[in-house]
Structures are given as structure tokens and as C-alpha cells.
Design goal:
- The chain is mainly β.
- It has one domain: Porin.
- It contains six helices and 26 strands.
- The protein has helices at about 1-25, 40-50, 65, 95-100, 170-180, 335-340, and strands at about 75, 105-110, 115-130, 140-150, 155-165, 180, 185, 190, 195-205, 215-225, 230, 245-255, 255-270, 285-300, 300-310, 345-360, 360-370, 385-395, 400-410, 425, 430, 440-450, 455-465, 500-515, 520-535, 535-550.
- The strands form four sheets. The chain has an 18-stranded antiparallel beta barrel. Strands 1-11 form a two-stranded antiparallel sheet.
- Strand 8 and strand 9 (about 195-205) form a beta hairpin.
- It is globular, with a radius of gyration of 23 Å.
Amino acid sequence: MKTGYRLSVLGCWLSVFVSCLLLLASQNNTYAQQKNVPLNRNAWIELERNILLPDTDHASEPLSVTYKLCYTAFKPLVESTINLPDKTEKNRSLIHRKIKTESLFIVKDTSDKFHLTLDPLFNLEIGMDNEDSLAPTLYKNTRGVLVRGDIGKNFSFESSFYENQATFPNYIIDFNNTYAVVPGQGRWKRFKTAGYDFAMSSGYISYSPTIKNEKWSLNFQLGHGKHFVGDGYRSLLLSDNSFNYPYFRATTRYKKIQYTNLYTVFMNLTDGGVTTPPYTERLFQKKCGSFQYLSWNAHKHLQLGLFQGMVWEASDRMNKQHLDFFYFNPVIAGNAFVYGMHNTKNVSLGTTAKIVLIPSMYIYGQFFLDDIAKNNFKGSISNKQGVQLGIKYFDVLKIKNLHLQLEYNKVRPYTYAHKRVEQSYTHYNQAIAHPLGANFKETVAIINYRAKDFLFQLKMNYAQVGRDSLSSRYGNNIFVSDNNSFYGPTSNINEQNQGIKSTISNFDIQIGYLINPATNMNIVLGIMNRAESFNNTTGTTDFIYIGLRTSLNNIYYDF
């Protein structure tokens, strides 16, 4: 397993090295940030607040005076498309800057043609589960490195690598052993008696050509990472829940419209069929994804989005993908028109909306359509859809840096699944949308507060799920074929949350101190309580932990 990770890291570094050789001779005189903003909610919430409400002293003035409706729904964002605050402290000592504001190592030339930073990454965490007296000490030991750079004004790159050893609460252990992956962090091997050893790498190159017409902008990225569509805590369209994947992304902006094409390579952790020696690792089955997202600032208060996703047929017995022209079709809704919603290609459509109510508050929503029922729309197995509705309130009651988010998600049974199990809306044994799969209702409430560098977060999740049993498929498990559905593949009596009634509650409170925003390095003390009830039994986790970490990714354990 380690060989694959090393090759992935080597590929990221090779792409960076070749691109550097090609562009170091460029004649650009200044550098600009074409890097991505990290996919981490706690870092993002402050940035989003500053985008929406840059000056709280004018909060009582008309909406058009204070807010800016940016294209925030397709993440990660490129730094050059938003105004990042300047945290440079040139008058402070070198030690102070390295600890509080700057990257550990910085390399740049005097003409600002080249700028490179290198930082250590880590998560040193220890805790205990008060509900399990027999459990060993729970810990995470993560070490890694992050390299980021800019060459000229048009080109940026990034590469990172994490090596981990960890022990987990029982419900995470159950997940790891069932799906052969650690949530969002890839495959594992056993470490000592009760631990897990796993690694993760990512990287990309980002290029934005110079265009004289300011109404236009372009960005192209080639890399290995994750994406997120929407303004919520969850995404029902495409999320960063699963493991990293190779991708190519092209983003075009013209006046009030932004259009994104994303092409990916996903993987089913089932054998691809080629087992001839001397292969030292299993060869898994590949599939491809193509996604289009159109965002339109329809009004100064309103932003609308249209989404199309498609997961293409898995590879044949020789692990070769057979793609036709329409895989590369960049026209949104084009593949839905060509193939329809019932083809061997798993086609889906979606919409998003964001409405700014007052300068510090907006509501948002999503609608996901995976299939269309031909008869008896309400109970049909083909009634595959999901809906999200949420609200974000910044500077609650004019208390600076006190933020509130409320969100509701509902997904019908069998959504994201497919008649061919290879075509499910998944990657690396995890959903690429919501971590609960399908056939659930969920409510999320999050409170964030920041006083200087001290941080507080309270997050509560409550979900009702219709679980599958070992022999009956009620629509929660999206890795199972629709043909195995409990009422049959043509049934029309399916109901929301059918199956084994289960309730899940997560309560997570964190108190922390932000040391350095360059890598979101922070100290955190937290308490997480999780309870799941079904079949008159309740399993409880009461996890207390303390850690020193660099938080650049979202890792979802609240499922």
C-alpha cells in the first residue's frame, strides 16, 4: 500500500518540477496567488464573513453598500478571485513572524518572479472515550509537509503529504473495518494491536492566463484533491467527504456568470480484473466523473446555480475505460439530454440558490435529482432526490465574530445508487455527496465565536436514518444495486426513512487558540458525544481530546 502513496506523491512533485522548468523563464514581473483557499470550514467561515461583510461599521447602511456577492459555491476558491487580508508584520521580529503569521521557510527572488513556502503539517492529538473503559488511549500522530509556490503572476502550485498512525472510537473502528478506509483519508493497514496506519497526498498546478478584457477570467487546474459544491456544511451535489482523486478543472468567468467544468477519475475498491504477477498491489476498478456547474448573479441579492454530474461506466476486465465524446462534453445538461436519467451512465442534475437578506445574513439551498419517476412519483423507487435548506448569520446581534449556521438535509431512499453497483455516486468506498448515504433526514446547528486568537465552536447534528439490514435493502446503502431493493426494482410504495429506524446525535464542543493562520495551526480542547439508537439499543461515544494541529482539510466524523 505504501508504494502507491509514494508514487502518488512522486507524481505530484514531478508535475510541479516540470511546470517550474517551463515557467521559470517567463517574463512576468510580479507574482499573484493562483493557489486554492484550503477546504477547511473553520478557516473558511472567517473569510466568508469578510467577503460578505467587509465593514461592520456600516451594517445599518443599505445592502448594496456593504456586501459583495462572490462566487463561493464551487470550492476550493482561487485566491486571486477574492480579497484576502494582508497579515504581513514586517516590523515584528523574525521569531514572532514565523510563529504567528508566516510560513516556516520562504524563498523568493527580489523581482517577485518566484515565491515558495514550505511548512510542516501535523496533528498530535490524545484523548479517551469515557463510555468504553476497555478502550486504549485514543490518539492521532500525523506528520507531513506542505509546499506552495507562485511563479510569475499566472502560475501557482501546491503539494502536500500526510503520514498517520491513529486509534479511534468504536464507531469509527466499525466504519474502518467495514469499508476498508479511514473516513476521507484512504486505505489503511494495521498498526500495532489496535491502531491504523494510513497516508494521504495531494497536489495541483493552477494557471490563469492574462486576459486584457477585464470582463473575462480563466483558470485551469490539474491535480489530485477534493472539491465541494454549495454554501452549506454538507453538499448533496459534490462534497469533500471521500478520499482525494485525480482531476482537471476549468473555470470561466464572464461578467455575472461563472462556469466550471470538472473531470475526475474515481475508484471502486473492487478488483479491476488484472491479477497477473509481478503486481505487488491490488489493481482496483476505475470509473470517471464529469461535472458542470453554472453560477449566475441574477440580482444583487440573489445567486443561482445549475449543476450536472455524471459517473461513467467502470472499466472493463482489463481495467481500461471506454469513453466517448460526451464524456468531454462541456455543455451543462447536455449529457442529461443525450443519455436521460435511466442510462448506464449515472446522470444527475441539481440546482443551488443563495439569497442575501441583510448584510450579515443569507439563506441557501440545494436540490439534487438523481432519477425521475415514470409513475406514482411519490412512492416510486425512481423518486431519487435530495433537498437542502440553510441559513448563515454572521456577527449575530451585532456581536463581532459570533456566527450561526442552521441547516436541514433530506435525501430519499436509493438516491446516489445505481442498478449497476459499479456506477454508484461514490469513490474509495465513500459517498461523494453526504456521508450518511441516502434515506435520511438531518439537522445541523453550528455556532462559532472568535475573540482575537481564541476560538470557540459548538456543533450539533441530529439525523434520522432508515437503515438497511443484512438481508434487506431499504435504500440507505448506496453501494447496493437498485435491483436488490426491498420492494423490488419497479416498486412504487417506498417511503422516506423506511427500514430500520435509527437516530444519530452528535454534540461537539471545541475551545482553541489560533497560533498561525498560514497553516491554520491551532491548539484545541474538545468534547464529542455521539449516540446512535436502533432496535431498542443505544451505542454511545463520549470522546474527550486535546491536540496541536494544522487544520487545512475537512474530516467528517459526524455520521
